[in-house]
Amino acid sequence: MIRPNCKFCKLKSPAAELLNDDELEELEQNCALVQFKKGEVIFREGTMATNIVYLREGMVKIHMKGPVGEKILRLNKAPVYLGLPTTFGDRVNHYSATAVTDAKICFISLETFKEFIFSNGNFAYEIIMDLCRMELSDSQRYTNMSQKQLPGRVAEILLCFSNSLFKSDTYELPLSITELADFISVSRESVSRQLSEFTHGGIIAHDKKNVTILRRDLLEKISANG
DNA sequence: GCATTAACCACAG
DNA sequence: CTGTGGTTAATGC
């Protein structure tokens, strides 16, 4: 664990940018910075939510056990708070968070965080904005994923990675094929085959986990048509 | 019926 | 864990 220095932290959340010096001092006294390695669990479904979890650097998957297997709910990249709904909504975590890359996490005292919400309206508003945006994009994705067929789902997730996560046509898949399957609710074989088909069709190029989108137009069409 | 889609199974690398 | 091939059940002309 590293002693955090919140006041001069360059990786503050947009909400924490709105805290005054006294509050930042308070935050600093009530937060711990922890380093996680790729694959390590940050918090686990079924355990008590005791702290506010802030992803400062890295990428994390949020996932839960379903009736048949694991389901990935979303992929978050820093900076973002993880699990606010499960921390405030219940005492027990309803889902898990696992580092997909090496990650740095600030664990913040729940009491301190609550104080900020009560005393600093701008801070609270920023948190609400974040939660709302998350809810909107989740709803959109769940709706799309449940109504699209296999090619549409794979196309959408590839575009989503490109557009929101990496801002590039070339990237390294942050998830394994199996995880991808758990994300878009199809079998791992289907994901594998679909990626091959896109490759043979000249729509993408991929070797191992490196993906390049060659025909964004076609991919968008496939995604849109479901 | 016949075609399409995607899951399930098995097995190789 | 990944990629492929065969099989099978469901759904839609």
Question: What's the CATH H-level homologous superfamily of the largest domain?
Answer: Jelly Rolls
Taken in chain order, the helices and strands follow as: HEEEEEEHEEHHHEHHEEH
Query: Alpha-carbon distance between the termini?
Result: 46 Å
Q: The CATH topology of the largest domain, please?
A: Jelly Rolls
Rg over alpha carbons = 19 Å
Beta-strand proportion: 15-25%
CATH class of the largest domain: Mainly Beta
State the helicity in percent bands.
40-55%
Gross CATH architecture of the largest domain: Sandwich
Total E-strand runs: 11
The description of the largest β-sheet is: 4 strands, antiparallel
Strands of the biggest beta sheet: in what spatial order? Answer: 1-8-3-6
Tally of alpha and pi helices: 8
| Mean pLDDT rating | 95
Instruction: Name the overall outline.
Output: elongated
- Report the structural category: alpha+beta
- Point out poorly predicted stretches: none
Blueprint of the fold:
Elements: H1 21-29, E1 31-36, E2 41-43, E3 51-57, E4 59-65, E5 70-77, E6 80-82, H2 84-89, E7 96-99, E8 103-109, H3 110-119, H4 121-147, H5 150-166, E9 170-172, H6 177-184, H7 188-200, E10 204-207, E11 210-213, H8 216-225
Helix pairs in contact: 3-4, 5-8, 6-7
The chain binds a DNA duplex (13 and 13 nucleotides) through helix 7.
Describe the structure.
With 226 residues, the protein is of the alpha+beta class. The protein folds into two domains: 6-143, Sandwich (Jelly Rolls), CATH 2.60.120; 148-225, Arc Repressor Mutant, subunit A, CATH 1.10.10.10. Helix content is 44%, strand content 25%. The chain is built from eight helices and eleven strands. The chain has a four-stranded antiparallel β-sheet with strand order 1-8-3-6. Helix 3 (110-119) crosses helix 4 (121-147), helix 5 packs across helix 8 (216-225) and helix 6 packs across helix 7 (188-200). It starts with 20 loop residues before the first helix and ends with a helix. The protein binds a DNA duplex (13 and 13 nucleotides) through helix 7.
